[in-house]
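Provenance and format

Records in this collection were gathered into a single text stream. Each protein contributes a sequence line and a token line. The two records reproduced below are adjacent in the stream.
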Amino acid sequence: MITKEQFEKALEERQTREVREKLREGCVAVAGLGGLGSHIALMLARTGIRRLLLVDFDQVDVSNLNRQAYTIDQIGMPKTEAMKQRISQINPWIELEFFQGKVTRENAASIFKGYPVICEAFDGAEEKAMLVNTVLEQLPDSVVISGSGMAGAYSSNLIKTRKVMQRLYLCGDETYGVSDEESLTAARVSICAGHEANMAVRLLLGETDV
């Protein structure tokens, strides 16, 4: 087992002092811990931010294993608990907060209040729209990064990050969503997750352009 000091020293050797100081105080919320959100959460934990809020209502299922960051022994566990377990094996010193349940228009603002960056990683279009609209309307100090279009086996280069408005970014190809005609693969979903995680890091560093 390594110490917190050893973990921090390793990060300091790979991040400049200015970047490390900003990321060390970074706080991000991840809404949805499926194929997109589970990988976002792990990337941010590896980056060494201070606090992470993990939000999901579901449990790990065998159908998740083809693209989500869980393991066979975690089947049946709440995704928040399973992700806590995974993160503890990477960065046990990160501050973790949890919400195990459904996010609604009525409770979204109270759940995500205090988080300057919110990564949206829900499955359904209605849930995505609800969270984005609620953040923009009720949380003026928060920026939301949303995923849109990561299904299929199309070119990786189609997945991009776009600034839609002052406090809204979209990551994905914005075309190929979940449907009966499209596959979901670990590689393409993870690419989109990388875009969201990277944009979250850039926002923590004060970089708002894409």
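Adjacent record:
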Amino acid sequence: MVAGLTGHWPHRGHRTFTACGAVLAALAMVCVAALAGCASRSSQGVVSNADAGLITPSDEPENRRRARLRLELAANYFETGQAAVALDEVKQALAADPEYADAYNLRGLIYMGLSDFPQADDSFRRALALRGQDPSLLHNYGWLLCQQHKYLQADQYFARAIANPAYTARGKTLMTRGLCQSGAGQLAEAEQSFLKSYEFDAANPVVGYHLAALLLRRNELTRAQFYIRRLNNSEFANAESLWLGIKVEHALGDSVAMRQLADQLRKRFPDSSELGAYERGAFND
């Protein structure tokens, strides 16, 4: 029913879990409507009248149909990194239908990816003016505010998104909220957000990594070991997670586990800064 981008987690390779820019696609949400009246995960596309029947393509106004097709093209270009072409398609979508909230949302995501925050802010505000309770839009605007270090404002938008009982991506928003709370130095609050996110998706590598890092910082080593071992035993292990695992095992005094992780780090990521830190013995950096 909905076509578009949902974001992808890092797979094998030396990818980062801590640099927010590197997981932008995973933190933002694109929702491109496939049918009129089904523009989002919010209550706005739900038909409450049992006699109304299903919404079919013939119910979609012509201007919205043209805009939707342009927006689907824009989403595809955005996914392949062709920001300028994607923006041009969004422009044509809005020319066809100036009241298309999803088009403003995608425009905001593109500008956010280009670090043009004023244009992104304007785009998300326009989207929210049209569909102010949409949790995906609230999430995206909160993430934009977070990147500008407007943490208190960002948290208010995340809270509104999470409070929507029909919202199916609460785990993702809880994760993003936790990253922002970490950036604001609210570590206890961040841990709670990550723990709640973990309940939705225990395989999420970003959540597992940050939980382990927070617990190591608090010297809750057994709990930190649980989360980082689970991550390092998965397909999402990378140089950063292996190095965090080494530091946890070092703090616990498990030299065997530490050497095993170091061997993986040396074999898989020989040019990584994490291997250099290990070889210097920089366990407390």
